[in-house]
Amino acid sequence: MARLAGRRLLFAVPILLVVTFGVFAIAAASPFDPVKAYAGTAALGADAETLERLRENLGVDQPFISRWWHWLTAALTGDLGQSSVLRQPVADVIGERLVWSSLLCAVAFVVAVLAGTVLGVLAARRPGSALDRMITSVAYSLEAAPVFWLALLAVWLFALQLGVLPAGGLTDTASEQVTAHQVAGHLVLPAGVLAVSQLPWFTLYVRQGVGDALTEDPVRGARARGLSERTVLLGHALRSGLLPVLTLVGSRVPELITGALLVESVFSWPGIAAATVEAATAVDFPLLAALTTLATAAVLIGNLLADLLYGLFDPRVKFSDM
Amino acid sequence: MTCEPTTTADPGWRSYGASRRSTRAVRVRVSVALVAAIVLAVLLVPPLVHLDQQAVDLSSKLLPPSWSHPFGTDDLGRDLLLRCVYGMRVSLLVGVAAALTATVIGTAVGGIAGALGGWADRGLMRVVDTFSSVPHLLLGIFIVAMFRPGVWPVVVSVALTHWLSTARIVRAEVLSLRARPYIDAAVSGGASRWRVAVRHLLPAVLPQAALAAVLMVPHAMWHESALSFLGLGLPTHMASLGNLIQGARGSLLAGQWWPTLFPGLFIIIPTLAIAGLAGAWRERINPRRRSELML
């Protein structure tokens, strides 16, 4: 298993290299001028000579390949450049915000997996029943609903109409420090919306997996032995039906990141995703490049996890074959 | 919702007999009717209904839904039903343009990879793998941030992130077609590579590619609306559905729900209708794989 992980990581390196290269190539092809972005409004009044000197200092006069190489070698030592919009090193921006994004994603993901399993089993128990139809219809509708729209409606309902939950941020505006109690209260809505946006996928897959398992011989055998319906459903069908779902969990990272991006921006959650939007609005290239690379790395790790889980949970798969 | 609105659930749910078959027929009819209504509304309302969607009427701002304004009015007194129809027109245009571009790219890459095989196949599939390692919305945001503002950056960024699945589908199809006797017959009959590709392979993969293109339209619409919502998409004067939702945030915080609710419904309904239609279509061209939209 360690060998498989090592080999997959080895495959991930060229992908990361190509992605960073592509990021620099796109930036080089774009009409965007990093000097003006760096200097901001000050560039308007500056004379040509100052701008030229700045251009040299930033290394922008070099071809993009050498800039890419420079960035890459610096990145390996932990120096990801300076964010022009947040006026602090990119590595610090990521360090400060990663924990909040991870917290949001982890809570949402766990809730989505648990609730999705319960709903999927309920739906699969009597295929075609009213409950099944209701769960599936709602799942498809939620799947089609934009997550930022759900988030806004949730703010309207829970924060404005009912007034039970805060509308955004990490803590109350009045409070000086970050306490666990405050964060938990502010986490409920964003995590809930993110979980709801991931829920349909789990529900539909669990329903599919358990529904298929219910028609297979082991279940028929268990029923013939007179085991209770509960044992059959939870002990036999769920266990084999959940297997394909579990292994696909790792491949949900891109959707989770996409969802987090939109949810964080609605709820002003101080995470990485919100920084991405800020960076994009201000065309903060160093920050954008680092965040794109980071997200790609997260996706690759997710894929690796999916492979490893697949091998761990399915005894038919040998790691040496992968 | 997620990045994959229409391709998530596995196809292949079991059959439950006659009652389900009839509900499926109903669902297909409803989907067809909805898609037809959307297309008609988008095409006919602007030339036939002589109401200005931009007409500002401050005396009737933020009216809740009523008989004269079924969806209510926004913060400038504009009729939201009209705004939604126009917004869907913009979103659909961008979606269709992006889906067509993505389908052309995907069909070309998948077709070349499948037809040539060998190192070209491996190389192109590596490119596909690399592209799919970057979260689509993030890549889209990056491209749009670098090439703002305008419609084309949005179309290109959506197209560039959506051709991957089409490339995979077309490649798989070409690989399976290559083994068929009629291709062997054409080759031994002396047809050139080019002729085999254009006259024999392309027509055979077109139904799959067209299905992928149709399924991509809601996807692309969703993507555009997300970009516009983040303030990185279409310019604000092009009132797409995403821009409408973004523009309604102020009203929402003041407690008016209707400027937010209805544009969102206009994203959900076409998505479900197109998915229902595409499911039925897929069954027709590929009867063994059952629809993913079976409830």
TrEMBL record, chain A:
> Which residues does the UniProt record annotate as the domain ABC transmembrane type-1?
98-306
Q: Does the keyword Metal-binding apply?
A: no
What keywords does the record list, in alphabetical order? Cell membrane, Membrane, Transmembrane, Transmembrane helix, Transport
State the source organism's domain of life. Answer: Bacteria
Database matches in InterPro entries? BPD_transp_1_N, MetI-like, MetI-like_sf
TM spans, by residue? Answer: 98-123, 144-164, 287-313
Instruction: Show the Gene3D superfamilies listed in the entry.
Output: MetI-like (1.10.3720.10)
- What is the membrane topology here? Multi-pass membrane protein
Signal among keywords: no
One GO cellular component term, please give it.
Answer: plasma membrane
Cell location: Cell membrane
Q: Name one Pfam family in it.
A: BPD_transp_1
Q: Enumerate the Gene Ontology biological process terms.
A: transmembrane transport
Q: Which family does it belong to?
A: Belongs to the binding-protein-dependent transport system permease family.
Q: What is this protein called?
A: ABC transporter permease
Q: Source taxonomy lineage?
A: Bacteria, Bacillati, Actinomycetota, Actinomycetes, Kitasatosporales
From TrEMBL, chain B:
Spans traversing the lipid bilayer? 30-49, 90-115, 127-145, 151-170, 201-222, 261-281
Source organism per UniProt = Streptomyces bungoensis
Any idea what this protein is called?
A: ABC transporter permease
Pull one GO CC term from this UniProt entry: plasma membrane
| KW RNA-binding (keyword) present | no
Entry's localization field: Cell membrane
Show the InterPro entries listed in the entry: BP-dependent_transpt_permease, MetI-like, MetI-like_sf
Q: Name one Pfam family in it.
A: BPD_transp_1
Locate the ABC transmembrane type-1 domain: which residues?
88-278
The family database entries (PROSITE patterns) matched by this protein are listed as: ABC_TM1
Q: Name one GO biological process term.
A: transmembrane transport
Which keywords does the record carry? Cell membrane, Membrane, Transmembrane, Transmembrane helix, Transport
The parts of the chain that form a coiled coil are: none
By its UniProt entry, which SUPFAM superfamilies does this protein fall under? MetI-like (SSF161098)
Q: Which family does it belong to?
A: Belongs to the binding-protein-dependent transport system permease family.
Q: How does it sit in the membrane?
A: Multi-pass membrane protein
